[in-house]
Amino acid sequence: xxxxPWARRMQDKVNLPVRLYWRDGGTPLDLGHxxxxxxTIRVKDASGLPLLIDPNLDTLGRAYVEGLIDVEGSxxxxxxxxxxxxxxxxxxxxxxxxxxxxxxxxxxxxxxxxQYHYDVSNAFYREWLDENMVYSCAYFEEGNxxxxxxxxxxxxxxxxxxxxxxxxxxxxxxxxxxxLVLRAAQHFGARCVGITLSKNQHELATERVKRAGLQxxxxxxxxxxxxxxxxxxxxxxxxxxxxxxxxxxxxPYFAQIRKLLRPEGWAMNHGITSTDPDDGExxxxxxxxxxxxxxxxxxxxxIGTVLSTLQEGGLEAFDIENLRRHYARTxxxxxxxxxxxxxxxxxxxxxxxxxxxRVYLAGCxxxxxHDQIALFQVLCRPSGRVAGELPWSxxxxxxxx
Length: 401
Prior knowledge:
- By secondary structure, the protein is α/β, with parallel strands linked by helices.
- It folds into two domains: 3-94, Nonspecific Lipid-transfer Protein, Chain A; 107-397, 3-Layer(aba) Sandwich (Rossmann fold).
- The chain has 15 helices and eleven strands.
- The protein has a seven-stranded mixed sheet, sandwiched between helices. A four-stranded mixed sheet has the order 2-1-3-4.
- A hairpin with a 2-residue loop joins strand 1 and strand 2 (25-30).
- Helix 10 (250-260) packs across helix 12 and helix 13 packs antiparallel against helix 15 (351-369).
- The longest helix has 19 residues, at 351-369.
- The active site is at 364.
- This is Class I SAM-dependent methyltransferase.
- Keywords: Lipid metabolism, Methyltransferase, S-adenosyl-L-methionine, Transferase.
- It comes from Hydrogenophaga crocea.
């Protein structure tokens, strides 16, 4: 069998508790010296062989998603094995470089990318998200909160940071299913505009606003952030959205926020960042897999790039908080909920989509846990004279809470 020399090299170089079966059965191949395998790989199609022999997270993920291989074992074990193969088994000249992407982000292509990711179905997301359907990093004040509690705490953490006051006008860029604007209107007395490019999100968020009787305080629009023209806004939030903007478009993105914001206003950018100082893609082929199957045209800047482009766009950063471990915890809870509802979710979508989301959620938890990606909240305001309304210390964020 062609795999035999490769398997022997794996035994000598990596020694992983993996057993591999060829599609027609026969003698299994072991990739290490062990009594019982932690992970079993069953090759179902010969086209999966090249993806195994020169592996990275993209090729391994592709083989699984496309049904070329089946994998048995716990998700933590599977992820550890995948990363070990990508790190140690791949020839040096086969490594995926962290190459800066330079996609052309147009209104049409961005809308298509957003709809590809978010319009799987509202019912699909409802199965594994919290009760308010918040699809972004939660905030764990103690670390033992439920997902529902932590997501509500995240929204309140953001709204306290921007010092939202009754009657103020809030724009939420990438409003999801409306959880933040609903909270802002109900508990902070704000007047809100939420925008999204997802048709499913727009439909459900509009329905939730109507159900809450808040049509006079909240407007949900199917709109690109570049097309918002009814300035000014007192506060602007962007939560889990700027990952779709593109590295070459960050300056005009922040400039648009600056244009829409009152001179004395505050904005919050909450988003995933790369841990590569050169803005490279996620290591070991992870970025390629995500671009191929999950977030088309998504690009992650390093926090240094975020701060420099934010300044170029006319904004000044006042408070920066790294919530990487919070997102690791969030993704772990999402993955656990996904696994617990696996059969229900599998019946809702095709097999390929189910496999994509299964490996994506678990893989994100691993990546955040191991500092391959991060999450930063950046509180900012228009550049210029210092506004006197922000307290001198951060104590105000936590007092009386």
